[in-house]
Every structure is written in C-alpha cells, then in structure tokens.
Specification:
Layout: H1 3-11, H2 19-27, E1 34-36, H3 37-40, E2 46-47, E3 52-53, H4 55-61, E4 70-72, E5 77-81, E6 91-94, H5 99-106, E7 115-119, E8 123-130, E9 141-148, E10 151-160, H6 164-172, H7 183-187, E11 197-199, E12 217-219, H8 227-253, E13 259-263, H9 270-280, E14 283-287, H10 293-304, E15 321-324, H11 330-348
Parallel strand pairs: 1-4, 7-13, 13-14
Antiparallel strand pairs: 2-3, 5-6, 7-8, 8-10, 9-10, 11-12, 14-15
Length: 349
C-alpha cells in the first residue's frame, strides 16, 4: 500500500469500513463511523469469540486498528440524519444488520435449533446454536448471528453456491429455457427425474463434501431423457444440498429441526418447496415476504427505539406464509437422496 495512505490510516485520517459504516458516516456527516457486530464479523478481521477487532488478523492483513469503525449492537442508535435536508427533521439511524443474519432474525429463529434457508442465486442455511461458540468438524461455518444486551448468539451456516444460478445457467449457456418462470411447469411435465441427477459443482462443492476441485455434471441420462428431466434435476439438486446441510448441522450441533423457515425469490416455485419438504423431511414455513433481511433490520430498529420492549415481544409480528409438509413417504425420499449421494461420490472420488 502507498506509504502516504498507510500513514493516514494509522493516524485515523483515512478509514476502512464496511458499506454500512460508509453509509452511516455520510448520513451523519462524519459524526459517526460505526458498524454492527454482524457486518464486522464478515470482514475476516473480527474475533467472533471476544467480540472485538482482532489485532493479529489486522496485522496479518496490514489493516491499522485506528482505521476501523466502532462496533455496536444492531439495536443501537448510529446517530441521526435528515438525508441532506430531504427530511424535515433528523431521524435516528437504528437497526443495522448483515443480510443473512437479518433474515434469521426476521424469521424469529431466536432459540437454539431453529433455522432458516434463504433461496437466491445460492442458498444460505443458518441454524441458531445458542450463546456458546462451537466449531464444526464437517466444515459448516460458525457465524455470529447477533449480539443483544452484550450476549452473542451463534449459528451454524451452510452455503450452496448454485441454486437459482443453476437455472440461469440452463437459460444462458444451454438455452434450455427462455426464463426462470418456465421451470416449474417444465419440472412437472414429467412424473420423476427419470434417473437424471444434476450436480451443480461449477465451482466445487461446499460442506459437508469440502470438494473445491469437483466440477458439475449431469448423470443418468438415457435416450429417453427430455429437457423436462434436466430442468427437474436442476431443481431437485437444491433440495438434496439442503438435506446435506441440515443433516450435517443436526449432527454437529446435537439438535433436531422440526421447521425450516424459508424466504427468497425461488420460494415462489411450489414444486421446489414441496420437493424440499419431501426430501429434507421438515415442515417448511415459506414467508410471503420474499426478502426477509430488510424486515430483520427493521425489527432491530424497533427494539432499539423501544417500540417493542424485548425480543419475545417481536413474536407479535406475524408475516403470512405458506406451510409445506412432507407428502412423499420417507423410503421414496431416501431412495432419491441415495441417488444424489451416488452421483456426488462419482464426482469426488
């Protein structure tokens, strides 16, 4: 780094922060330079056990501590703003949270053993594991879910790289579909996957496989394989990967999920949601609010401003949703999942 900039960083005259810290700094006209625990925890510079910037990590990456923002709880007030005079009077900035953690909060996963899946380009699965920091032996990430009243809550996190992105690949690279809106109808044109499994390991496979060199493959095709089988297999792969993650987390965390809260654009696909419920064997509560992250941040703001007195009172906030329960018998689900495991094994041998 240019020596002139390093001198300014060390003296605090130049700053390094997250996007929320940048926005807060400008909204408050430089009066507040702060972030929250969840955003700080994503920087690779923050110690999620002692809840402060890690001196060793900062030294390793050449980041002066003086250049980093103050870290506050999500419910704290981060100054106030009138947005450059757009508002008639200043309003408090309250409720700052990272997107995945905010979705977990919005889904009211406040107790250990409660979890959510946010479906998007990829899928993020977070399961509350309580206030004790624990490491996974299988490769699940231990995330800082939030800090409230100085007490941390942790979560196991599993990430699927390709969910809706697989559908985009079918459209953009293979021209099998014209738009994502077609996939549900195509998937239900056939009664099953015809023995076809699509392993979307375009950039490897995350936990529990931890196989970064694995590459994508479509297996089990025969002369009878149709476009519908491939599209269906692409959707089914999302459910299989969620089962991979849920079973890993249940084993690692010594817990048992009964409900999986779901949000994100792909949750509008009814075939996908029902298949996830069938394969994973959990009741799905699918929020009508496709993007729960904004609600989670707002809920923290309402706590901070005293609109709701405590976290339990937030349970009064009800977001309508659709419930999906397993319809497929467990033996059939296990047979399909065994086919997935066999397909993955062929790729990572």
């Amino acid at each position: 780094m240019n020596g002139r900039y390093m001198t300014r960083l060390k003296s605090g005259r130049a700053l390094i922060g997250t996007i929320d810290a940048y926005l807060i700094y400008h909204l408050t006209k430089g009066k507040v330079f702060a972030t929250d625990f969840t955003n700080a925890s994503r920087t690779l510079l923050f110690n999620v056990v002692n809840l402060q910037w890690d001196e060793e990590l900062c030294e390793t990456f050449g980041v002066p501590l003086a250049s980093l923002p103050e870290v506050r709880e999500s419910v704290c007030t981060f100054g106030e703003t009138d947005i450059e005079g757009i508002l008639s009077h200043p309003v408090p900035i309250c409720g700052v949270m990272g997107d995945s953690q905010a979705a977990l909060f919005a889904q009211q996963c406040y107790q250990p053993g409660t979890g959510k899946a946010t479906f998007g380009t990829g899928t993020s699965v977070l399961v509350n594991i309580g206030s004790e920091f624990r490491l996974s032996k299988s490769g699940a990430l231990t995330a800082l879910a939030w800090v409230l009243d100085k007490e941390p809550t942790y979560a196991f996190e599993g990430l699927i790289n390709y969910s809706a992105a697989t559908i985009e690949w079918l459209r953009n690279q293979l021209s099998l579909i014209n738009s994502a809106a077609e996939v549900e109808a195509l998937a239900t044109e056939v009664s099953d996957n015809g023995g076809v499994y699509f392993v979307p390991a375009f950039t490897g496979l995350n936990a529990p496989y931890n196989a970064p060199l694995a590459r994508a493959a479509i297996l089990g095709m025969t002369p009878a394989t149709r476009r519908s089988h491939i599209v269906r297999a692409a959707l089914e792969a999302i459910a299989y990967q969620i089962r991979d993650i849920v079973e890993m987390m249940e084993s690692e965390g010594n817990l048992k999920l009964s409900v999986l809260n779901c949000d994100g654009g792909p949750t509008k696909n009814r075939f996908l949601m029902q298949f996830v419920a069938d394969i994973v064997g959990l009741e799905l509560l699918v929020s009508e609010l496709a993007e729960a992250s904004a609600l989670g941040a707002a809920m923290n703001g309402m706590l901070g401003l005293g609109i709701y007195p405590d976290i339990k009172s937030l349970e009064a906030i009800k977001v309508p949703g659709t419930i999906y329960q397993r319809k497929m018998d467990s033996e059939a689900a296990d047979r399909l999942y065994a086919g997935w495991l066999d397909a993955v094994t062929r790729l990572i041998k």
